Amino acid sequence: MSAKRLKPVIDAVTGQELPGISLKLEIPFFDTDPMGITWHGHYVKYFELARCELLKKIDFTYLKMAESGYSWPVVDLRLKYVRSCQFGDQIHVSAQLSEYENRIKIDYLIHNADHSQVLTRGHSVQVAVDGQGNLCLQSPEVLLQRIRDSL
């Protein structure tokens, strides 16, 4: 069954679709509790794996962020658990960039690859902090350029 995608987000400035990715994972035994159910905290890890793939797609990995003189800590993370998954389940984790002008907001969707049932939805927000620890109210040009280049 094909990967269920999040609804594409159209950039208000360029009119182009913002980057998104989907990756397929198999739930490993060590991610499950004694009942074989995926422990709830691991969904955050799956979001992180998808976020890293999305950042690779725009050629702005965490190492490149650090080289730019800025960091982007996660300041908000929300999850809505809909259904559970178990050891051996195949899942698709989708990540869609939805905002970038003032902060990085990424929407997530996790669904079962075999049944296409939604398991988890959520989003994360990251804000830029300069090398002196000051919060940036607008995204630095280095991020804006990476996103423009990826469109």
How would the blueprint of this fold be written?
Blueprint: E1 20-26, H1 42-57, H2 62-67, E2 74-81, E3 90-99, E4 104-112, E5 118-126, H3 141-150
Antiparallel strand pairs: 1-3, 2-5, 3-4, 4-5
Task: Summarize it.
By secondary structure, the protein is of the alpha+beta class. It has helices at 42-57, 62-67, 141-150, and strands at residues 20-26, 74-81, 90-99, 104-112, 118-126. A five-stranded antiparallel sheet has the order 1-3-4-5-2, covered by helices on one side.
Structure in words:
This protein has helices spanning 42-57, 62-67, 141-150; strands at 20-26, 74-81, 90-99, 104-112, 118-126. With 151 residues, the protein is an alpha+beta fold. A five-stranded antiparallel sheet has the order 1-3-4-5-2, covered by helices on one side. A hairpin with a 5-residue loop joins strand 4 (104-112) and strand 5 (118-126).
Supply the key terms.
151 residues; alpha+beta; five-stranded antiparallel sheet; 21% helix; globular
> How many strand segments?
5
As an assembly, this protein is single chain
**Number of helical segments with 4 or more residues:** 3
Shape: globular
Cα distance, first to last residue? 27 Å
On the 0 to 100 scale, the average pLDDT is: 93
Which range best describes the helical content: under 10%, 10-25%, 25-40%, 40-55%, 55-70% or over 70%? 10-25%
Query: Biggest sheet, strands in spatial order?
Result: 1-3-4-5-2
